[in-house]
Design brief:
- It is a single chain.
- About 0% of the residues have low confidence.
- The radius of gyration is 36 Å and the shape is elongated.
- The strands form eight sheets. Strands 1, 2, 3, 4, 5, 6, 7, 8 and 9 form a nine-stranded mixed sheet that branches.
- The chain contains twelve helices and 31 strands.
- It is of the alpha+beta class and about 625 residues long.
- Helix 5 packs across helix 6.
- The relative contact order is 0.07.
Length: about 625
C-alpha cells in the first residue's frame, strides 16, 4: 500500500477492508486511520481489471479538521454505559472510530449487540451518549420454497392497456373498476411454505410489516389467490413478483453475487406517505413503499419497485459509496433507467416515462429517461432531477445496443463506484467495463452517447498544432476549454510566452516553437490534461531554387522554382548580369500557398543570372550560376 500513499499523497494510515471480485476484475476497498482508529467517510477504492491493469482510483480525502485527542475507552467502560442489558448468551462487539461532529473528528464507539431479539448496533459519542440505533437483522423462511398463483399489474395498468392516466384509468382513492381489473394478470409467484401456510417471502425477499401504517402481511393455506388493487395484499404479491423478475435478470447476466442476500421489504410503509425509499442497513437492507388513500399505492407500479431495488443493486456492488450529490444523482439515474428498461422489456408503450402509473398524474409529475439533458449545465439539485442526465444517456444506449449488452456492462461498472464520484467518473467506468468485457467492440457507441450528454470530461487545448507568423499572437485552448470549468483550477505550462497561465484561453506570442500543456483540476481533485504545439513559420512570400547546384555544375539543364506565400498574380523573369531580360513567365491564381515552376535553360552560357518574382506587393530575387 506504500505506492498508493506515495503516488496519491495520502498522509494517513491505510487499511484494507475488503476485496471484491467481479466479471471485469478486482476491487479493493480501504479506509484511512488516525492513531490506529478508523476515520469515518475516508474510503479509498482501487480497481484493477483481470489483466492486473490499474483502471481507476477514488479517494475520499480526510478533511482538514482537527482530531479530538485519542480516547481509548476499554470495552468494559463502553459497555457499562450501554443502554441494553447483556445476558450470558449475548454476542457483543465494540468498534472505535472517528466521526465528524461539530467540525471536529470525535471519538465514537459502536456496540454490536446480538441477543434473542436479533442483531442491533448502538452508536455512542465521546461522552458515551447514545446517538443512533441500527437494526441489523435478517429474517428468512424456515420452510420450503413454493409457488402460488396471484394477480399482478404487468408492469402497470396504463402500460399494459396502452393508455394514459385519466378517466377510468385513475387512482380514484384506490378504488377498483372494470378498466383496472381488465389489466390484472394471473401468474405464478414464488413464496415460502411453512407449517401449512404460504407466506410472501423467499430466500432473497422477506416481506415484513416493520413500518407504519402497519398493515399485517397475509398468509394463506391455498395455492390460489385472487387479490385486486382494492386489497392490500395485491401490492404484496405485485412487488414480490417484480423483484423476483429482477433477480432472474441479474442471475441470467452472471451477477448472482448481487442477489445472494435477503432484502427486507414493507409493501405498506413510509408512514403512509406518497414516497418509497431504500435503506442500506448493513447486512439487512430494506425497502419501504408508500401507501395511502390520496395517491397511487407505490407497490402497484413496477417502475417504483424496480427503481428502489436498483439502489439495493448499486449498494450491493459498492457498499457504503452512495455519498455525495453527484454520486447520489448517478444512483437515481441508474434506478430510473433500470425501471424504464424493465418496463420496456414487457411492453414498450411510453416506456421512457418513469413511474408511469404512480406519477404523470395529479399527484406528481413523475420523471423520464427520454431526455437530452447534459452535464454539467443540467446537474441542478435535487439528485433526482440531476439523475435524469445519467438515466437519459443510459436509455439511448439501451435502444442502440439492447438491454442485455448494456446491463452486462453497466452492472460490471458498479463494482468500481466510490463515494463522491461525479458523472464523468460514471461515464469513464462504463467505458472501462466495456473494454474489459467486449474488448472495445462497443466503445465508439458508448463514447459518442456519453459525450453527447457531457459525460466524458476533458480538457481541450485546441488543435494539435497551430502555426503562426513571426511576432504574431494566437489564443490557445478550445471554447470551452473543458466541461468541468466551474470551480476548477487551470494551469498552462510552460508559462513562457503566455500572457496568463491560469485562464482558459491564454495568448501565446513567443517566436520559439513550444508545446504547451494544460491541466484542469476540479474541486474534487480530478485532473484532465491536453497539449498543443505552437510553431512559428515564415509568412512573407519567398522564392527557392531547388536544384541550383546541379545546374551550376552542368549536371542538369533544368531549374526548378518553389514560390511560397505569394498573394495575387505575379511575373517570373530571368535576367543576365547586364540586366538583359532573357525569359518571362506568369504565375496565375497566386493566392495558393505554394507554386512549383520548372524551366529548361540549356541555351544559357556560362555566367551569373538573376531570377525575379514580382507583382505590385512583392519583389523577390535569387541568383544562379552556370559554370
Amino acid at each position: 500500500m506504500d505506492w498508493l500513499a506515495q503516488s496519491h499523497q495520502i498522509n494517513t494510515e491505510i487499511h484494507l477492508i475488503s476485496l471484491r471480485k467481479s466479471p471485469v476484475g478486482f476491487h479493493y476497498s480501504f479506509v484511512q486511520m488516525h492513531n490506529g482508529v478508523e476515520i469515518d467517510n475516508s474510503h479509498i477504492k482501487v480497481n484493477f481489471n483481470k489483466k492486473d491493469e490499474l483502471r481507476s482510483v477514488f479517494i475520499n480525502r480526510v478533511k482538514g479538521l482537527n482530531f479530538e485527542p485519542l480516547i481509548n475507552f476499554s470495552n468494559e467502560v463502553v459497555l457499562s454505559c450501554h443502554k441494553k442489558s447483556i445476558n450470558e448468551n449475548d454476542l457483543v462487539e465494540v468498534k472505535h472510530s472517528y466521526l465528524i461532529i461539530d467540525n471536529l473528528y470525535q471519538n465514537c464507539f459502536t456496540v454490536s449487540h446480538e441477543n434473542e431479539n436479533g442483531l442491533f448496533e448502538y452508536v455512542y459519542n465521546s461522552k458515551l451518549e447514545l446517538t443512533e440505533t441500527i437494526d441489523k437483522n435478517i429474517y428468512a423462511c424456515s420452510g420450503t420454497d413454493a409457488v402460488i398463483s396471484g394477480n399482478i399489474f404487468n408492469p402497470d395498468p396504463l402500460t399494459s392497456a396502452n393508455a394514459v392516466y385519466g378517466g377510468t384509468y385513475s387512482d380514484n382513492n384506490g378504488a377498483n373498476n372494470a378498466s383496472l381489473t381488465a389489466e390484472l394478470f394471473m401468474t405464478n409467484i414464488d413464496v415460502c411454505f411453512d407449517m401449512g401456510q404460504y407466506s410472501p417471502f423467499t430466500q432473497h425477499i422477506n416481506v415484513v410489516d416493520f413500518a407504519p401504517p402497519y398493515i399485517p402481511i397475509f398468509t394463506t393455506s391455498s395455492t390460489t389467490t385472487s387479490f385486486n388493487r382494492a386489497d392490500n395484499d395485491f401490492e404484496t404479491l405485485n412487488l414480490l413478483y417484480h423483484l423476483n423478475q429482477m433477480f432472474i435478470h441479474l442471475n441470467d447476466l452472471g451477477y448472482g453475487d448481487l442477489t445472494n442476500y435477503q432484502l427486507r421489504v414493507d409493501p405498506h410503509g413510509a408512514n403512509g406517505s406518497d414516497n418509497s425509499f431504500y435503506v442500506p442497513g448493513g447486512p439487512q437492507p430494506s425497502l419501504q413503499f408508500g401507501h395511502g388513500s390520496f395517491h397511487v399505492d407505490d407497490a402497484e407500479d413496477a417502475d417504483v419497485i424496480v427503481h428502489e431495488y436498483a439502489h439495493a443493486i448499486s449498494a450491493r456492488a459498492a457498499p457504503g459509496t452512495n455519498i455525495g450529490f453527484e454520486r447520489q444523482a448517478i444512483d437515481e439515474g441508474f434506478g430510473d433507467y433500470i425501471a424504464a428498461s424493465y418496463s420496456r422489456s414487457i411492453n414498450p408503450f411510453n416506456w421512457e416515462k418513469v413511474f408511469s402509473w404512480d406519477g404523470h398524474n395529479e399527484f406528481w409529475a413523475g420523471r423520464t429517461v427520454g431526455t437530452n439533458k447534459k452535464y454539467p449545465q443540467d446537474s441542478q439539485s435535487p439528485p433526482h432531477n440531476a439523475g435524469q442526465i445519467w438515466g437519459g444517456a443510459l436509455a439511448r444506449l439501451h435502444v442502440a445496443m439492447g438491454r442485455e449488452r448494456l446491463d452486462t456492462i453497466l452492472f460490471a461498472s458498479l463494482y468500481s463506484y466510490e463515494r463522491n464520484m461525479n458523472f464523468c467518473d460514471a461515464g469513464e467506468l462504463l467505458v472501462q467495463a466495456e473494454e474489459d468485457l467486449f474488448n472495445g467492440e462497443l466503445k465508439a457507441m458508448l463514447y459518442d452517447d456519453l459525450l453527447e450528454h457531457g459525460l466524458i470530461c476533458y480538457a481541450d487545448a485546441g488543435v494539435t498544432v497551430i502555426e503562426k507568423c513571426k511576432d504574431e499572437s494566437v489564443a490557445l485552448g478550445a471554447t470551452p476549454l473543458s466541461n468541468v470549468l466551474p470551480g476548477s483550477i487551470i494551469k498552462w505550462e510552460p508559462a513562457f510566452g503566455l500572457d496568463y497561465d491560469s485562464v482558459p484561453n491564454p495568448i501565446a506570442s513567443s517566436n520559439i516553437d513550444t508545446t504547451y500543456f494544460v491541466t484542469v483540476t476540479t474541486e474534487k481533485g480530478k485532473i484532465y490534461t491536453d497539449s498543443i504545439a505552437v510553431k512559428t513559420v515564415r509568412c512573407e512570400p519567398y522564392l527557392i531554387v531547388k536544384n541550383s547546384q546541379n545546374f551550376a555544375l552542368g549536371l542538369t539543364n533544368t531549374i526548378d522554382l518553389e514560390i511560397s506565400n505569394l498573394i495575387g498574380d505575379a511575373s517570373i523573369r530571368l535576367y543576365d548580369v547586364s540586366g538583359k531580360l532573357i525569359m518571362e513567365d506568369e504565375v496565375v491564381q497566386g493566392n495558393q500557398a505554394l507554386h512549383y515552376k520548372s524551366y529548361e535553360l540549356s541555351d544559357l552560357r556560362y555566367g551569373m543570372y538573376v531570377f525575379q518574382v514580382i507583382n505590385s506587393k512583392h519583389n523577390e530575387t535569387f541568383k544562379i550560376i552556370r559554370f
